[in-house]
Amino acid sequence: MNHKFGSITVYVEQDYDAMSSKAAEIFSEEINKHPEAAFGFATGGTPLGMYKQLIEMNKQKAVNFSGITTFNLDEYYPISRDNDQSYYYFMMTNLFEKVNIDRDKIHIPNGNAADINKECTEYEEALTASGGLRMQLLGIGLNGHIGFNEPSGSFSRATHCVQLDQSTCEANARFFTSVDDVPRQAITMGIGTIMMSESILLLANGKGKAEIIKKALTGPITPEVPASVLQLHRNVIVVLDKSAAEGIL
Length: 249
Ligand code: F6R
Fold this sequence. Notes:
The protein has helices at about 15-35, 50-60, 85-95, 115-130, 165-170, 190-195, 210-220; strands at about 1-5, 10-15, 40, 70, 75, 105, 135-140, 160-165, 185-190, 200-205, 235-240. Strand 10, helix 7 (about 210-220) and strand 11 (about 235-240) form a beta-alpha-beta unit. Helix 1 (about 15-35) crosses helix 2 (about 50-60). Helices cover about 30% and strands about 20% of the residues. It has an 8-stranded mixed sheet with strand order 1-2-11-10-7-3-4-6, with helices on both faces. The protein has a 3-stranded antiparallel sheet with strand order 5-9-8, with helices on one face. The protein is built from 7 helices and 11 strands. It binds fructose -6-phosphate. Fructose -6-phosphate binds near residues 42, 46, 73, 141 and 147.
């Protein structure tokens, strides 16, 4: 089922698997249409099903990653690339090592950079030099964050360093031994970086996300709900499972 919220197209699918299939179909079509373009990737639990589908599609030659450049949204700081909780490790094991991607064209912020501000500037510059993103994949945090752009008094612009909210550390603690092991800082694309993408694909599943999806798509546009800024973008597709869509249907 396809609904419109302003300029945002929303697909509501039966369950997580159907959401993942729809997302994989949309993302792979975009890659096949623009095989040499740059694409933005996300980590987290939400896109895992979509990544599994993309791996399968790649095996069957239904999507070709060989010409694309990739930029991930974010990375913890400090963290080393071989730490199995790093987003680098996540992307390699859950997608990049399993598809025909050119490793030299993968960009993930360096969580071990000596100079974090320099890393942020260079990351943004590399993204701009690539010609900009064709499609950015997003999940959404329970507090409305996109990337690691937490609720705040203003929308951030370019890639920058952030302090993570306690609620985000707690939500992510499930992947670490304890909440104390979750790094307190991160490097993230800014809201400005995300909004420059030609198109945006946002995914959410589960009852827990219903409230924030409602706020993001139908509430006031405010940096207190960072995802609400997407109402101002001209080309956003949202794919939800039924539970995450409960608040808007
Ligand atoms: C991940 C990211 C985060 C997640 C969000 C939702 O790269 O930037 O904004 O998309 O925290 O996470 P999950 O999918 O685990 O609910």
